[in-house]
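Here is a tokenized protein:
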Amino acid sequence: MAKEAPQHPEIGARLAAVREGFSDLSQKAWAEKHGFSPTQYNNWEKGARRIPIEAAEKLCSTYGLTLDFIYRGRRDGLSESASKVL
């Protein structure tokens, strides 16, 4: 059976950019730091699953992101620090 294509690759790419922009942590360490299951987070970052709103809101409040950035890629509304690293 062929592997299913990622359903949310753009969201996953933005999550990876946030992780890499704000830390040098591995996916596993980043997930654990934020209280996410490493397997779940890996699925979000590779685009296999969409990050739930509650988890996205946690990243937004911690890093000055917006849900519009995570889900749609809109950069307006990002904090100054987020704008610099993303």
